[in-house]
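User: tokens in, sequence out, please.
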């Protein structure tokens, strides 16, 4: 099914790549996004969906000293988030706190909680403990994995352990397993590596070239989804890694990112450099799963593509499902356009 966007738009002043759901905000559907400008002071925008769901409101606009390549919201405190940033050829990562807003748009400066120092190669991303309050963070650069202990009250971050993936591998990102908090998946140029944080050792790998992004199915243990440049989207059972258990076509150009819905099984978003966002139902037999997921309209469905949102004018790099309202997602294209969409019409009442 093809369709243009019927969503709610918001324009950033500069180019951008990353957007994050504010999971800890239980009162609003909120997103954080940051810009990627070479010459200008960059910005972090706190966006909230209005009560009627008809408008994206900027609740806070904050200056950020460098171009933002990764942004992730803290799962237990809505005012805390992390960024990976670049100044020239130097990369860094930090944890920030949003000041109390009191309704004003032009807010005070972001408060630095901690710097994640110690990386010697290009930083890729920061991963937060998947759910609930915890002091653990993971940071990933091209060659290394760092496990941190973060104390937000003392404003300190200490390295608990670190390990090299090997100079032959160039890490590009990763995801933290929400079902087994000791496991993370790391993407690199030639494989997806599975790591155990207790031993800081690789336990297994999926040999695939040009994997851009990975995400875990929040509802199904052992299920991992990968996005690959040319060969689309693959769904893996971590207990049997020789071949994927399902494939989706992906995009007409590079498939850049995938995100599994936090509530509905087998519901996947993908985005790519073909300027499109695709909504997939990975399994036509989804009504055979749990009662909570039986609301997905899948009767007699053989085509996994539920909808393609294809009216973007630039590559789409950022995707985020709302944890509070899981039928809502936000997308971000490189030209700084944020669009929030509802998929309620794909769900039965």
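Assistant: Sequence out:
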């Amino acid at each position: 099914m093809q369709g243009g966007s019927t969503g709610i738009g918001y324009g950033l002043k500069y180019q951008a790549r990353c957007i994050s759901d504010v999971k800890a905000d239980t009162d609003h559907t909120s997103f954080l996004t940051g810009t990627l400008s070479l010459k200008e002071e960059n910005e972090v925008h706190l966006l909230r969906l209005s009560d009627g769901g008809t408008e994206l409101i900027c609740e806070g606009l904050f200056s950020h000293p460098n171009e933002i390549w990764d942004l992730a919201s803290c799962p237990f405190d809505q005012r805390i988030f992390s960024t990976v940033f670049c100044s020239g050829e130097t990369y860094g990562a930090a944890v920030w706190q949003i000041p109390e807003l009191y309704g004003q748009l032009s807010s005070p400066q972001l408060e630095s909680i901690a710097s994640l120092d110690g990386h010697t190669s290009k930083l890729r991303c920061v991963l937060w403990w998947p759910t609930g309050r915890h002091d653990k963070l993971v940071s990933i650069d091209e060659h290394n994995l760092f496990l941190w202990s973060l104390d937000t009250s003392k404003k300190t971050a200490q390295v608990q352990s670190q390990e090299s993936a090997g100079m032959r591998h160039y890490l590009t990102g990763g995801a933290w397993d929400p079902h087994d908090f000791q496991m993370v998946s790391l993407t690199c140029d030639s494989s997806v590596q599975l790591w155990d944080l207790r031993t800081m050792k690789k336990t297994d790998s999926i040999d695939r070239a040009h994997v851009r992004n990975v995400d875990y199915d929040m509802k199904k243990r052992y299920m991992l989804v990968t996005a690959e440049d040319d060969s689309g989207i693959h769904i893996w059972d971590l207990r049997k890694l020789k071949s994927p258990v399902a494939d989706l076509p992906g995009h007409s150009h590079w498939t850049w990112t995938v995100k599994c819905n936090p509530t509905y099984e087998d519901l996947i978003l993908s985005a790519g450099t073909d300027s499109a966002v695709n909504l997939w139902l990975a399994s036509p037999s989804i009504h055979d799963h749990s009662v909570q997921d039986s609301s997905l309209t899948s009767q007699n469905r053989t085509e996994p593509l539920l909808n393609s949102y294809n009216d973007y004018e630039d590559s789409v790099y950022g995707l985020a499902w709302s944890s509070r309202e899981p039928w809502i997602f936000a997308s971000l294209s490189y030209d700084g356009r944020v669009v929030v969409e509802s998929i309620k019409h794909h769900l039965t009442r």
